[in-house]
Write a structure and sequence with these properties.
Layout lengths: L3 E5 L3 H13 L3 E5 L2 H11 L3 E5 L7 H9 L9 E5 L6 H8 L3 E4 L7 H6 L15
Parallel strand pairs: 1-2, 1-3, 3-4, 4-5
Bound molecules: manganese (II) ion.
């Protein structure tokens, strides 16, 4: 069975790659390109998992994460950060903020879908996900 996945990413090429990989894996994907829309879409769409860029206009990924975690209906949704930051300590900062995982851009198309699926319940991991 497929998962409902929300992608929040303002960079078109990066977003298109995420959408492509997740749809190829059989997931149902919606996307937005700013943080405020991400929070609204999370309320409207009830995704099983959110992939969230850290640097976005309007509200950044940290703001999105705070808004989700502050909403009892949305607080349990896994949120995976993707970020172009590659400075030492970035991963620690992202995880300390409460993201469930961190992916540095560019993501690795060979491993991303399976790495993401590890944050889904087993029955929602899609067609191509590796089984543990
Ligand atoms: Mn961005």
């Amino acid at each position: 069975m497929a998962a409902r996945i929300l992608i929040a990413e303002d960079h078109p090429a990066s977003r298109e790659l995420l959408v492509y990989l997740l749809e190829m894996a059989g997931h149902e994907v919606r996307w937005v390109d700013d943080g405020i829309a991400a929070v609204q879409a999370a309320r409207d769409y009830s995704p099983d998992l959110i992939v969230c860029d850290v640097q976005m206009p309007g509200m950044d990924g940290y703001g999105v994460l705070r808004a989700l975690r502050d909403d009892v209906r949305l607080a349990a949704i896994p949120v995976l950060a993707v970020t172009a930051y590659s400075m030492p300590g970035d991963r620690e900062r992202v995880i300390a903020a409460g993201f469930n995982a961190y992916f540095a851009k560019p993501i690795d198309p060979e491993t991303f879908v399976a790495d993401l699926a590890a944050h889904l319940p087993p029955h929602l991991r899609g067609m191509n996900a590796a089984t543990p």
